[in-house]
């Protein structure tokens, strides 16, 4: 691999040493050239590679980890040696073990695989150039949306082919299964548990490892949603990993800055669509297994369209902190609030660069306003309206939508017919489409991938002025609304409000099912089952209009929001028989009534 760095003007270099002797000037210029070379090299190769054992030893020797382990040993009344042994065991479970020989093999395999799966990977090259600019002087942390397990592979593949050091990827330990776990670990993954509440030694071990990576200026990658989005929407941000990185930066004065790179990855079709639909409907997520690879030939028989990678402007942690570094180190509440604000800013940035797909417009036009069937002409006309509304938010759009709008929409419709999500009737000019009731949830997944550019308009249309702020607060876990959404639109079709009515129905369903008297204390999975079962009954009665309102993930968000408002109580220190959180009715009857009135007003019940 050969890379040409930025050109340096000899006249400018000489001018930096106006009063130096000739020999001193030559030495000074040589130092500048050497430093520039090191920066260019670091951007491509990353820091000096350490063995897994050397990395673990270095982390165990860190003063911060030693201090924390002594505190924990005292709190738990165990020996320091016992605490250190547990920390070493944790690090063995966590640490990456990257091998560049394996990276080369991955390159050949992924080149073949992506050519079989996809019709191309479209990369935001201006974003790549900006990453290269900031990566010369500071470590970067790639923070992408999370749509598929393929995300891990595509971002590393794109970095490799754009002369950027591969990021070490923070992955859930559900992917550490044999035999692929060791392969992923040697490819740059480090594994963390989904939950480690109540295990302070594990938390301290992970934090020390992340801090060492940042100190070494290693590129990293983590998914701020914490898990893959099964609904098509961008999930609310989680703050655990982000907080660790902020603390590491505040505690290590040798780190000049850290740049977070919000990014969006968007697929015309996602490999896991079938399993996602099962989970949306409440079925249990299956743990990844080696035997799942036996299904690979089935996937290879299909094509999944294009993949789009977009990058937002890098966010400097140093600039975000300003002069608050010392204050935040000593104030846990202030640090928590700063982390939360930064997490939402990163989420906003991801939302802003999410690609608008033709399948999202076509699915939305098929679903709303709800009808038994829709003609091809009506669908194309509604898609034109939807695109016009979407462009107000200035989303990234595909080249196909930009240059061949109606052809792109028609291809999406044809693909949905071929996959059995919708049904086509008639021929040519007389063609019309219908959506079976039991397929509306599947189509909702496609529609949700366009809500980043349509949610503002839908909220504006559903709200009377006096309910605007309350409705926005209610749905804050569902959509990233703009600050200026109330002034963005002059005229909207009435049916645009239908786009968020299923979400409002899901929240109403969660509220009425969790009213006092319906239960006393219940584990989350059982409560979700109870809500979904009642929803099915209310659909049959006609009290709910949209089958897509029965989405497990929307209802989970509703439970979180109702808990924040005191309508529900979450027993944080208590887990049910299956290890899930436990809920009971909250004490705030007034807030419950306010929520009910708001939802029924918005739904016009």
Summed up, what is this model?
This protein has 27 helices and 16 strands.
SSE layout:
Layout: H1 10-15, H2 22-45, H3 52-60, H4 63-76, H5 80-94, H6 100-117, E1 121-123, H7 125-135, E2 140-144, H8 150-161, E3 168-172, H9 180-186, E4 189-192, H10 200-215, E5 220-221, H11 240-251, E6 259-267, H12 273-280, H13 296-300, E7 307-311, E8 315-316, H14 317-321, H15 325-329, H16 332-352, E9 355-356, H17 358-367, E10 374-375, H18 376-390, E11 396-397, H19 399-403, H20 405-418, E12 423-425, E13 432-434, H21 440-448, H22 455-462, H23 468-474, H24 501-513, E14 522-523, H25 524-541, H26 552-564, E15 568-575, E16 581-585, H27 589-602
Helix pairs in contact: 3-10, 4-5, 4-10, 5-10, 10-11, 17-18, 17-20, 17-21, 24-25, 24-26, 24-27
What does this structure look like?
By secondary structure, the protein is of the alpha/beta class. The chain has 4 domains: 10-45; 101-352, Glycerol-3-phosphate (1)-acyltransferase, CATH 3.40.1130; 354-453, Arc Repressor Mutant, subunit A (Orthogonal Bundle); 455-605, Arc Repressor Mutant, subunit A. Helix content is 52%, strand content 10%. It contains 27 helices and 16 strands. Strands 1, 2, 3, 4, 5, 6, 7 and 8 form an 8-stranded mixed β-sheet that branches. The chain has a 3-stranded antiparallel β-sheet with strand order 10-13-12. The protein starts with 9 loop residues before the first helix and ends with a helix. Residues 290-294 have low confidence and may be disordered.
